[in-house]
């Protein structure tokens, strides 16, 4: 494919939905962008090509694509041998394995009726189940497709997933941080006003609160369903490259929505949760607990047990909030930088996929907080022991049935051989 500069300039065209000029530039979505859409950036060799991230889409200078034959274009969009892609593949596989197994086990333990340690904190347990469901959605849907688009730059998943994947990521993150906010408020009331907390956080009200969390998340993230779309880039008559883009009417509207998400789903919830966590911790570890030393031994032991459980849950909530803040902050900062500058530096484009991985990995690290800080590993051990006992009983019963059948078959064979010998001796052959 040998194209002159004039031919390439006339043949590189965009659909009518993608007006490209110096004022209005189309932005790719948070998860996916294509290196062929860099805004007026010179295209480096395929081995040094920046990797997918958030970027502006604009027409490339003709000189940046010349010469470009079939093999060069294939190496441009197929990046499985890139060192960065190999590293991200390993990281995503580990995150997927840990997140899938961890969230499944967390849901099993949290919904198990045999979990006596969580019986007294049913409200927190329901909210943690909702959080685990959000994390499982991110792990099962967002991680594989994000990695697939990192390996193969062409969007091959259709228009539905182009709209669904960014929306699922956004709504899961929104529901997660709002659920953490409800958990923080619940734990604060449980420490400060235990009797009021029991009447306020009933099971029915918790279910209504979870529904409200999802409705609010749906309202905040719904623009992504309409702004994301699958489009095609035409490179001459023989190359059509489908991409998933986030197309807004104007860059100011896109920047305003990014600021809205950052303030509503990061700054306010993280600040509020850390403040509530500080107040809860001061209540739990303050001097107020010294008066319970004057109680009788039985009442004091009961109070110490409850206090220990509340402290563990408070530590877990603060750890979840801190983990959320650390995981998603690099991605927010990278997207802010890319949105604000017309020509993002190449190193930012190369490191942005790792910020994307770090944000998604938050869904894989939450179950670790449940187990090692929230003390759910004991419930997991009980569940695992119960599971192993059932499996052992199943195999032992099957082995016993097989042994009985084998013994019967062996006895029947010996009886048949014995009877056959008697017939042979009583009836000699006739010659």
From TrEMBL:
Among its keywords, does the record have Isomerase? Answer: no
Output the Pfam families linked to this UniProt entry: 7tm_1 (PF00001)
Its GO CC terms? membrane
Report a single Gene Ontology molecular function: G protein-coupled receptor activity
Parts of the chain that traverse the membrane: 86-105, 126-147, 167-185, 206-226, 257-281, 313-334, 354-373
Q: What are the entry keywords?
A: G-protein coupled receptor, Membrane, Receptor, Transducer, Transmembrane, Transmembrane helix
| Ranges for domain G-protein coupled receptors family 1 profile | 102-370
Cellular compartment(s): Membrane
UniProt keyword Transmembrane present: yes
Checking CDD domains in the record gives: 7tmA_CCKR-like
Query: Species name for this entry?
Result: Umbra pygmaea (Eastern mudminnow)
Q: What is this protein called?
A: G-protein coupled receptors family 1 profile domain-containing protein
What's the main place this protein lives? membrane
Q: Which InterPro entries match?
A: GPCR_Rhodpsn (IPR000276), GPCR_Rhodpsn_7TM (IPR017452)
């Amino acid at each position: 494919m040998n194209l002159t500069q004039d031919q390439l300039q006339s043949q590189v065209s965009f659909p009518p939905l993608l007006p490209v000029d110096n004022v209005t530039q189309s932005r790719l979505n948070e998860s996916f962008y294509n290196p062929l859409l860099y805004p007026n950036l010179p295209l480096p060799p395929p081995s040094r090509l920046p990797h997918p991230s958030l970027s502006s889409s604009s027409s490339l200078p003709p000189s940046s694509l010349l010469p470009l034959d079939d093999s060069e274009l294939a190496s441009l969009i197929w990046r499985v041998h890139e060192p960065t892609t190999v590293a991200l593949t390993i990281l995503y596989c580990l995150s997927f394995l840990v997140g899938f197994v961890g969230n499944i086990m967390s849901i099993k333990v949290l919904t198990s009726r045999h979990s006596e340690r969580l019986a007294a904190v049913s409200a927190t347990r329901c909210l943690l189940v909702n959080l685990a469901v959000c994390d499982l959605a991110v792990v099962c849907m967002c991680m594989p497709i994000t990695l697939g688009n990192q390996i193969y730059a062409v969007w091959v998943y259709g228009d539905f997933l182009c709209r669904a994947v960014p929306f699922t990521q956004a709504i899961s993150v929104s529901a997660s941080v709002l659920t953490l906010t409800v958990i923080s408020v619940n734990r604060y009331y449980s420490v400060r006003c235990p009797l009021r907390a029991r009447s306020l956080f009933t099971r029915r009200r918790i279910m209504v609160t979870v529904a409200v969390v999802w409705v609010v998340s749906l309202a905040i993230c719904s623009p992504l369903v309409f702004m994301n779309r699958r489009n095609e880039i035409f490179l001459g008559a023989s190359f059509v490259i489908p991409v998933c883009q986030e197309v807004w009417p104007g860059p100011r509207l896109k920047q305003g929505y990014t600021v809205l998400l950052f303030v509503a789903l990061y700054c306010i919830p993280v600040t509020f949760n850390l403040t509530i966590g500080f107040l809860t911790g001061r209540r739990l570890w303050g001097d107020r607990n010294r008066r319970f030393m004057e109680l009788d031994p039985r009442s004091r032991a009961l109070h110490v047990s409850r206090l220990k459980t509340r402290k563990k849950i408070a530590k877990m909530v603060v750890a979840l909030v801190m983990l959320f803040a650390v995981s998603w902050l690099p991605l927010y900062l990278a997207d802010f930088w890319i949105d604000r500058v017309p020509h993002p530096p190449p190193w930012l484009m190369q490191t942005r996929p790792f910020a994307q991985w770090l944000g998604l990995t938050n869904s894989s690290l939450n179950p670790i907080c449940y187990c090692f800080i929230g003390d759910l590993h004991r419930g997991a051990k009980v569940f695992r022991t119960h599971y192993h006992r059932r499996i052992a009983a199943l195999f032992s019963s099957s082995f016993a049935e097989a042994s009985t059948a084998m013994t019967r078959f062996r006895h029947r064979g010996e009886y048949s051989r014995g009877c056959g010998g008697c017939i042979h001796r009583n009836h000699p052959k006739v010659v």
